[in-house]
Amino acid sequence: MFTKILGTGGYLPQQVRTNADLERMVDTSDEWIIERTGISERRIASPDETVASMGLIAAKRALEAADTDPGEIDLVICATTTGDKAFPSSAVEIAGNLGINGVPAFDLAAACAGFSYGYCLAHSMIMSGQARKVLIIGSDMMSRACDPKDRTTIILFGDGAGAMVLGASDEPGTLAVHMSADPQFGPLLSLKNPPRGSNGDGCYLYMKGNDVFKHAVVSLAKLVTKTLELGNLTDKDLDFLVPHQANLRIIAATAKKLHLDMSQVIVTLDKQGNTSSASVALALDEGIRSGRIKRGNTLLLESFGGGFTWASALVRY
Ligand code: COA
Questions:
Q1: Residue span of the structural domain in which 114 resides
Q2: Which residue has its alpha carbon closest to ligand 1 atom 47?
């Protein structure tokens, strides 16, 4: 038995925040942001939107693409670190709104590696016979987690949700998965929950950007090499890299390590920024819906985030 991607979906809020908008918020410039990150604009959720409401739309689109009835889903995973409540979880809320009942549903916190962690878990649950079809969602509202006065973080992040239905299959499918964490670097990238009774001031995302950048490049190089080894493939077998969308320079370094031309890399961060746990799912959905990624293509999905956490999937689409 194998697992296969049956369908994907995505959702981006309507409001666009451009680099020109950020020039009015903090001491920065369009040129600096594009040169250092590759980002031109990102989407910002409206006050009435939540991680669950964004995830629900992405999930509906993934179910439709997978030609799957919500009643066929055996497990709902929502990767997020910005849900509006601890419980009921965003996954349970999404399941409820889809009419999915009597199956496990839970949120998964692995920061920007969340969706890839969810993929690894969904694959394992199907391979162990505990599920046939799993709905994996990555949804985050990082714009609210960043200090609007901190130019080193507010420029990077956007809001959005991506989703996928992964199903049991007679043909491959998922060729290898890998996930890991290294707690020693936790202080370099953190997001505290506000203490009860506080108004949340001071509980914004903290990032030592330059150090995170260096660790991300090194860890991702090791991750993609290991994942190819696990799947008994080489970089020559890859059609597309579907990377976490944190910084174009990090993505380019990983592509170079894999000897891939940038035309073989799905890049969405120019229009979306870093959407944390939604990023890989949104990039994959964009690659598929634009017609660039086709059935039979070999893909490498990878992500890296706070913790540090990192995860990957080598996939025949
Ligand atoms: N506009 C203008 N100048 C800025 C700025 C901004 N938005 N943000 C920082 N700067 C300044 C700094 O203050 C610094 O000035 P100084 O030299 O006078 O001290 C200078 O630009 C260089 O800062 P530095 O942090 O070294 O820049 P960088 O090239 O590392 O780029 C990031 C900063 C954040 C874009 C980059 O480090 C990065 O992408 N890090 C990893 C992000 C990531 O992967 N995050 C999460 C993983 S999920």
A1: 2-169
A2: 305
